[in-house]
Amino acid sequence: MNRDLTTGNIRGQIWRFTLPLLGSMLFQQLYNIADSLVAGRFISAEALAAVGNSYEITLIFIAFAFGSNMGSSVVVSQYFGAGRKKEMKCAISTTFIAAFILSIVLTVLGLLFTDLLLEAINTPAELLEMSAEYLDIYILGLLFLFFYNIATGIFTAMGDSRTPFIFLAFSSTANIGVDILFVTLFDMGVAGVAWATFLCQGISSILAVAALIVRLKQIGETKEKAPLFSFHILKQITIIAIPSILQQSFISIGNILVQSVVNSFGAAVMAGYAAAIKLNNMVITSITTIGNGISSFSAQNFGAGKNDRVKEGRKEGLLISIAFSVIASLLFVLLGRYILLLFMKSDETDAIREGIRFLKIVSPFYALISIKLITDAVLRGSGDMLPFMISTFSDLILRVALAFILSWLLASAVGIWLSWPIGWIVGTVISLIFYLSGHWEKRKRLS
């Protein structure tokens, strides 16, 4: 059901709204975790390294899908909060039309340049074929990736975080079973892992779009029929989407550069990193998802002119994200070895050791980065995009530079791992400065 987030008890609304979002993202992460888990446990350490290596490139495409999600959800949230349903419906159809064209273009470009991208990140020769095989199949499913992200973003914008959770929980659970089926029974190797993701993501995308169509019909017709496409609204969406795409793209490019440094230390470090970064990304993406909920909450209330509720919503978002971060940090520090063994065999000692090092260095700082991500969500919800871009790019540039410098100085992958907390500290300080300045409160509402 749709939920108006501009009235009612803030704490209850935030918790009821964000917890299903968090659950959805945890299931979303099962896609990638299942791929790595099945590749490492049922194929080989090389297969795990190949999937992890390809994953860094897939983040570029995910950046475009995420940006489309954020652009549409912020605009739809503000129109929904202001009660302007005609413009809201037009924003939804405009987003899907633009996303269809964009996803087709990216699919063609991705298939043409797969090998070039893999070679650019120093993919070892023995992993090149497996990495390309996985990546090509993944790219074929970009339309599903875009439509699913947009549909779930729109549900969230209208205050409904439960519907996407139900679809994703079903398809993600199925993905694990299909992964194992394709790899063990059909002996499809890395291709089986990729096709399982393609199939299950396609199903979740179709279900989410179909449910959204039904929901929009339930809202009813407006006095004037909403146009299917509007360049004016596309511009509003683009103003939010492009900074989000650039942010995520630069993060992806940064991750690719870091991956190239990791690759220089050999297959064992690559495998350890592939497993540990999946766990790390699960936590960071989950906190980002909580932030997306706060962003929708902020956008609805900002659209309704209720800035005090925006500030209270941020406090509640911080409570949830910090609590989640502390639990994740304790699990990774205390039980990291046993969690990594889900991805690797016990005799792969070098890979396990490197994965443990990464988790012990990076995970204690999850609470800190959650402060940045929730603060960024408020800035984004108000449409104040420049500040959070500056903080993110500062974090990223510093992190990438330090990965090269410290790994060279220490002659060890530990130098790469140390770059994470240093970048996070700087990014968090910058985000807080922009939020406390109050500039976001003075922004104009959508016309």
TrEMBL record:
Any transmembrane segments, and where?
57-80, 92-117, 137-158, 165-186, 192-214, 226-246, 252-276, 318-344, 356-375, 396-416, 422-440
- Main localization of the protein described in the UniProt heading: membrane
- What's a single GO CC term here? plasma membrane
Location comes to: Cell membrane
Per UniProt, the keywords (alphabetical) are:
Antiport, Cell membrane, Ion transport, Membrane, Transmembrane, Transmembrane helix, Transport
Record's bilayer topology term: Multi-pass membrane protein
Short name of any one Pfam family annotated for the protein: MatE
Gene Ontology molecular function, alphabetical: antiporter activity; xenobiotic transmembrane transporter activity
Biological process GO terms, please?
monoatomic ion transport
Q: Which NCBIfam families match?
A: matE (TIGR00797)
Which PANTHER family does the record associate with it?
FMN_FAD EXPORTER YEEO-RELATED (PTHR43298:SF2), MULTIDRUG RESISTANCE PROTEIN NORM-RELATED (PTHR43298)
- The protein depicted here goes by the name Multidrug-efflux transporter
